[in-house]
Amino acid sequence: MEDYEISYSKEEEQTSILPFLEEEEKEDKTGQCSNVEEDWEEYKLEEELAGGGEMGNKDTSEGVGDKYDSSMESLERYLGDVNNVQAVKYTDRVCILTLQRNLKELNDIAKEKELAVQKVRDKLSTCQLRIKMLAKQLDCVDTEIEKEEEAGNVAALSRLQAMHGRLCTELEKEKDFELKIGLTLKENMLEMWQIETEQGKYEILLEQLKKDQEELEKQYQERAEVRIWKEKIAALQAEENRRSREKKEEGSRKEYEERHKKILEDAKRNHEKAVCFLRKSIARIHEKNAKEEAKTQEHMERRIQAVLSLKNSITSNREKLQTLQVWNKAMAFEAKKQEMKMREAILAEGGNVAKEIFLHKRLLEHEKEKQAFRELQKSRKIEIVSQILQEKASLHKQKKSQSCTKAIKSGGKLEDSLWWRMKTWQYIEKTWKRSAGAISQSRCSPTACSSAGVRTASVGEISEKIPHDVLCESDGDEKGRDDTLVEPEFPGLWSQECDLHKISEEEMDSKQMATRVVTKEIFEKKKEELQTGIFPKQIGSGHERKGCTFYSKPSCIHFKDFDVGQIYKKKIVLINASYSVNFCRLVGVSEWLKDFISIRFDPPGKMSAGMSCEVVVTFKPMINETLEGEVMFMAQTGSFSVPLKCTAKRCILALDKELIDFGSHVVGETISRTINLTNSGALGTRFKVQASAGDSSTCRTTAKSSGRMVTQHFSDCVPEQKVSDSPVTSVVEKKEQICPDHSEEVTYCVAQVEQQRTETSLSSSSTEQLDQDVLNSRSDVGTDNTRNLVELSPEETPVEIMLGKVTEGEIGPFSSVKLQIIFIPAIPGDVRAQFVIMFDNSDCKPLCFSAIGVSIDVPVWVPNPNVDLKICMYDRLYQDCIVIQSRAKATLRLKFEVCKELSKHMELLPKTGYIQAQSSFSVQLKFLPRHSLPEDAGSYFNEETRVLEVPVTILIVDKAKKVNIAVHAIVTTSDLEISPAQINFGYCTVYEAVQTNVTLTNKSILPQEFGFVGLPEFVAIQPNDGIGILLPLESLTLDVIFKADKAKEYSFELTCKSEFNRQFKLSCKAVGVHPPLELSHSLVQFAATALNGVSTAKLYVMNSHASVNHFTHAVPRIGNGEVAPVGPTSFEFCVPEDCPVAITPSVGTVLPGKKRKKDEKREGKKLSISITRQLVRDGGSKHLTSLYSSEQPQSEELKPDSDAYMAAQAFLMRSFSGRFEKFIIPCFVASGQIDEKKRSENLSCSPYNTLYLELHCPAVAPSVVVTSDNGKNTVNFGDIAVGHRMIKRITIQNISPEKLELGFSVLNPNGPFLLVRPVGMLEPGENKALIISFCPNENKWFCETLDIRTAKTNLTLSITGRGVMPSTVCSVEEVLDMGYVIAREKVTSTFKIQNTSTLTLQYSVQLDSLSSTRDKDQQRLPSFITSSLQRTEFVGTQNYNALSVFSIFPTEGEIVAGKSQDFIVTFSPDHESLYYSDRLKFVLFGKKIAHVIHLKGAARDHPMFVEGGVPLDVPIESLAVTLPTSSQKALKGELQEPVKSILLMLDYIEGESSPVPAVTELKVGAIQTAQFASKKNVEFSFDSLPLLQQKGFTIESVKGTIEPGQVKCISVSWLPPADFRADDPLLVTALLTLKSDIKESYRILFMAKVVSAYAPTK
Questions:
Q1: What would the DSSP string read from start to end of 468-528?
Q2: Three-state SS letters, 11-50
Q3: Is the peptide bond before 1023 cis (omega within 30 degrees of 0)?
Q4: Is 1497 in contact with 1476 (CB distance < 8 Å)?
Q5: Looking at residue 1392, what is its pLDDT?
Q6: Which residue of 362, 1381, 1432, 1508 is most buried, as measured by CB atoms within 10 A?
């Protein structure tokens, strides 16, 4: 029994609804104010517009103004009413809400209490009835006890006493229960009365509510009237606006017309101006054309003169031309003769004259074209050769210019000029021999330019050693070659130009003539070789390819830094770059390289375009010298070569600078500089640094003026100081200025080199004197204000510029050495020193460098004149100390000054000071850069590099001298930039976190520490919790993670602090969402799953929203929006199409307080995933399955079902290295019950309530794979007949390197699948077979999974099969009657069986007569002994010849699904019998009997038969064979007895309204046979007809004739006569006679009886 309690009071009701009333009051007040203000602003705007309309149109303003006044008055009245009504509306709304809520609750509680009272009353009445019944039973027991006591029955008495005690106990319990129910009834009645009392209190309020509602209706009517007024005013305003628009349009139209007129006038004026300008332009054009015509006339005159001169030259050759013309005519005449002869010959042979002549002409034209092409090719070759020679000459000239410098720098290698000339002649001869075959190959060389460059380079190196006269001769030879190529074919207009380039023979000596003759002969030979070497053109796609047809990679074979005795190999690739098939073969290498270079090249044969072949070049150096040459090949399109170069190890030494400028320094300081000596070669050497000879006599200039002038003097000298670096370079520079002509320059340079080589007595003192002269001249130009130049002797000059510790040592290959130079100023003035670096390697030339400096004599000096403050930031104080030294013998007063531009940023303290004699003084430097520094500093600050250079002056007050020092600093900012400055996270559920990226950039060039401080609990910053260090100008990407803790709108700022305590803000916004549903896990991490494996995870979808009370718990809502309704909530998981994940079920509904369980499965590699729904209900839970598959990429060219595709897939599976994938699946949430068929079409969901499920799916390579059936993991048995078993073998292989122990999952023991033979162990690479059988027992699909478990991964086999129930349809029902047949004849019949199942059926046909148990069955008692109901024998009469009476074809086979099979049954009896029978069984798969057909037939010796009635004989024949004697008697003409008796039963039904005679049939037939074809028809007749008619029998046909093959049905009816007794059946006999080949008689027994219509039938 449940107790119902209620505690309700008006005070609690008011307390509970108080917050709601306050909110409603605020909303109503704000609504009132806003509505009134909006209405007032709207009408105020309308009034202003109306006033404007009055100003625009005075005619219509009066009427409209009256309307406006009246409308405004009425509007004010209505607005006042609206304010009053709004107050009433507020109280009405409060009352309505409270009354509706209270009355609804009271009514509900009252109904519940009434129902509870009714239940309690029912229980009370039931209890009272129970008490009465127990009281009656107790009285009855008392009376029985008295009776038994009187009777003395002790056993019954004890039983009754026990029953009495039990009844008393139950009666007491019922009475106690009655009391409790009564109390409960009273309490419930009291509560119900209280509720009714409360309902009575609200009756008055209900009446008041009705009145308030009437007032509200009135208010609504008044509002409607106000709206009507608004519409009217709006219409007036629209009319006024329309009028104003019309006025504006009229004004704009007028303005447009005025502008149009003005434009027309302007156009006319412009036209006049244009006409004027056009006339002037035409006049200028005419003048220009006249000038051009004059020029053209002059040009034509010149051309006429040229033509006339050409005519004169032609006239001079006219005789020759006439001779040629006569010769041409003779040749033409001869050709005609030949043509006539050819025609006659062709006609004589009977050929086609026109065709042969045409072909002959075409052949001649082709020959002419071929000849022209050869001439053209020769001319083009000559042009190419001339171009090559010209290029060679130009390169040779360039090398000449370089040879001068190389010859000057070559040192003292060649001392004798005569030996030099002889060596030059030898090189010239060798060069021409080497290049004998190179000119013809240069046209097709793949590296023509490079090879030409190499050859010219070698010639250029040789030319370094060639004397001046030889160089001039070679230059003249080049010009001679050009002249021979430009010589015209016919002398004419250009004959005079050739004489311009001729050189008189008198100017040449004997050596020059000999050189020219030799070179000219060589050139002629090369020219002939080029002209004879005709190669086919490269033509492809209608275009001729020019250039080389083979490219080599690399383009040059270069052996660098080789060692003698070692072997080096390099491989090059030759690529056919022509348009057609080509070939190449190796010709050889240069003659001078044959001892060192060997080539391994296998000719590839014909090579298609784009194909390549390889060549291996082996180099075995024997001498340590640089070698150059080429590897020569021959192709179908010409020869080509690949340049080859071998360079020995050598030292390549260089200095990073040749002049060290120390600048200006005070006497007494020590300054150090370094210079780098670099060896970029592969050979090391020893070096030694020493001062240049005569360096002690360096010129010095002592400056008596200020140090500023000296500094300026030396700064002017420094840029031109390079002139005096070395004597050689100075000579070269001088000669470049003197000899602008290149040829003269080269000649002079060579002469100077010879002079230097022959006259080696150039002393070092003269060189130094030259340096001093240059230095003095430079200093004179730059120091005009210098007064006294004092030259010091070497003895008086101290060593101020000296070397450091490192003066000699070893420099290795590809290394560098730092050399230190120290400057210690001792005497004021300029200081210069020269140093020479000598090397042990004789091939290395000495290197020279110089050092200069300026010494200043000031009483004070600063040890560190350059104050470097490093990197400074704005608004930060930096300090440093400047130490000042004094060499004076008295106290000096110093004043410290900073330039005015930087006085706001830099300060020296103290500003004035005294320094004691020969002591030091410290000044404090303070630097506080402001942000205005770039503007204030001006030129002292570089904004691009942000480098600040501040000059600071130390002024000696008494002596008017100053010392300049420089303060250097790099000023940078300390800003941190956050991008973007504002983040909007959007809508975020409380079950997930939203991440966004921000970029934090350090704008400073110093590293800065940063940290986000004071972060809210719902925000996290990663990495390292938002704390770190930013390098200079570095940008760092930070992840800002926001996780809402409840549903509301968020707006907050994140603070980033730098190490300098600067704060940078980041504004953030977000909206928290609390969805109605939640997931137990938002992240599912699957274990590492092999391909074709399965992983499962479980999670829940929960609906915890059961109440809308937001004070007790968090309620689902979006931000500060409405609370989601309580009720069933639906969800739907939307898996993307390309995501290999399937969720089952993906749609469902969760009731409040319930949850749905989901099983998520991740499957390895599935090519096609079908989402299967598996719903398992358990109370309020459901299972949800998610299938994950790691798919491999599918081929688009192969079909997924093909064997090639499966093989490729198996290969990819074996080579699979693993993969990790992430999937995020959205889950949409909507309130309400979902229709799973239509899914979410009938519900609307908010995208902000979407849940997200993240899946982490690692896939690994499997340990075991299936190798059978192309690696398919699906075992499909297909369609199998129910009850039959099929076995399949599945081969698995261990592809892991470990031995595996296999385990198997358990298949359904009651299912059709059975693992016949499992596998225990698998060795690495071993294959074994599993045997699985399938035996379906139902007509349906079966599907199971078999997990093959290993230590690391699982392999899942999907086993499917379909049990099919075989179904067939037979065209014959149960009996196939073959009819009557003449004995010893055959008859056939056909029936059809159709396969209606989807399975190919194997069948067999069996006959009982041919059964193996037939002999056993015959040993039993004959069937005729038993009753007909107990007979089970279906085999009837059989043939005497032991052959089967019935035969069928075919007896076994297959019927394809949907097809049918025809069966032929043959009936062949060998004697007469009416009881031939057999049973045919149609058996499927050798087991199941699908159809049973009874075969029947009858045989007669004669072609007639009678059928019908009740058989009176036994269907089983006697075992003895009896001859038919009746036929013999018939032949003798004797009367035969009836051979058969036939009983006809007729039952007349009595009691029906209309009497219906009893009817039966008798069939008489004639058998159609070829044996009795001559016989006539069969005749029949009945006897004893009067008797039959008397007894009431009527026979339809008494006699008749039956044709062969026909059956006559004779109808027999019976009506009982008047004297018939119903209790005595009637029996009448008649004789039926048949006549055919014999005469037969049948005794027909007519038995009739009367049956009552109401008699019960059994």
A1: HHHHHHHHHHHHHHHHHHH--SS-STTTTGGGGG---GGG--HHHHHHHHHHHHHHHHHHH
A2: HHHHHHHHHHHHHHHHHHHHHHHHHHHHHHHHHHHHHHHH
A3: yes
A4: yes
A5: 92
A6: 1381
Contact predicate 1354/1094, CB 8 Å: yes
Name the phi and psi angles at 641, rounded to 5. -140, 155
815 touches 683 (CB < 8 A)? no
SS3 1291: strand
Q: Are 556 and 647 a contacting pair, CB within 8 Å? A: no
Measure the CA–CA gap between 1438 and 1414, rounded to whole angstroms: 12
Question: What DSSP element (H or E) covers 958?
Answer: none
Residue 630, beta-bridge partner list: 643
Residues 6+ apart with CB under 8 A from 1344: 1307, 1308, 1311, 1313, 1359
In tens, the pLDDT along 384-435 reads 888 888 888 888 887 776 665 454 444 443 444 455 556 555 655 555 444 4
Asked whether residue 679 carries a pLDDT value surpassing 60, the answer given is: yes
Angle at 1447 between CA 1443 and CA 1450, to 5 degrees: 135
Mean pLDDT of the chain: 75
Q: CA 548, 550, 555, 558 torsion: positive or negative?
A: negative
Query: What value does the CA radius of gyration of the chain take, rounded to a whole number of Å?
Result: 65
Decide which of 774 and 684 is more confident: 684
Residue range 291-307: mean pLDDT, rounded: 90
SS (H, E, C) 1581-1636: EECCHHHHHHCCEEECCCEEEECCCCEEEEEEEECCCCCCCCCCCEEEEEEEEEEC
Q: Is 962 exposed, middle or buried (0-12, 13-18, 19+ CB in 10 A)?
A: middle
> Tokens 């520490």 label which residue?
1009
Q: Please tell me the distance from the alpha carbon of residue 1119 to that of residue 1047, in angstroms, as a whole number.
A: 5
Enumerate the β-bridge partners of residue 1356.
1347
Cβ atoms within 10 Å of 1465's Cβ, excluding its own: 22
How many whole angstroms separate alpha carbon 1081 and alpha carbon 1252?
10
Q: Which of the two residues, 1238 and 148, has the higher pLDDT score?
A: 148
> In the β-sheet with 568-576, what is the strand arrangement from edge to edge?
550-553, 568-576, 612-619, 597-600
Chain length of the chain: 1658
Query: Running DSSP on this structure, what letter comes out for residue 1240?
Result: G
Which has the closest alpha carbon to 1480: 1378, 1399, 1365, 1380?
A: 1378
Dihedral sign computed on CA atoms, order 115, 120, 124, 129: positive
Instruction: Characterize the bridge pairing of strands 638-648 and 557-562.
Output: parallel
| Across 656-677, average pLDDT | 86
Q: How confident is the model at residue 664 (pLDDT cuts 50, 70, 90)?
A: confident
For tokens 């005789």, name the residue: 319
Q: What is the layout of strands, in order, in the sheet containing 976-979?
A: 976-979, 994-1002, 1035-1042, 1019-1022
- Give the model's pLDDT for residue 519: 57
Main-chain dihedrals φ then ψ at residue 88, nearest 5 degrees: -65, -40
Are 1322 and 1328 in contact, with CB atoms under 8 Å apart?
Answer: yes
Provide the CB-side half-sphere exposure for 611 (13 A, CA): 12
DSSP characters over 1358-1396: EEEEEEE---EEESS-SEEEEEEEETT--EEEEEEEEE-
pLDDT, tens only, 471-492: 333 344 433 333 433 444 444 4
Place of tokens 């699908």: 1490
pLDDT single digits (tens) 521-549: 665 555 554 444 444 555 544 455 556 77
Q: What residues contact residue 874 under an 8 Å CB cut-off, 6+ apart?
A: 929, 930, 931, 933, 971, 972, 973, 974
CA 1637 – CA 1381 distance, rounded (Å)? 16
CB 347 within 8 A of CB 353: yes
Q: What are the CA-CA distances from residue 56 to residues 10, 66, 240, 255 (Å)?
A: 65, 17, 9, 19
pTM score, whole prediction: 0.40
Does 1141 have pLDDT greater than 90? no
Cis ω before 1128 (30° cut-off from 0): no
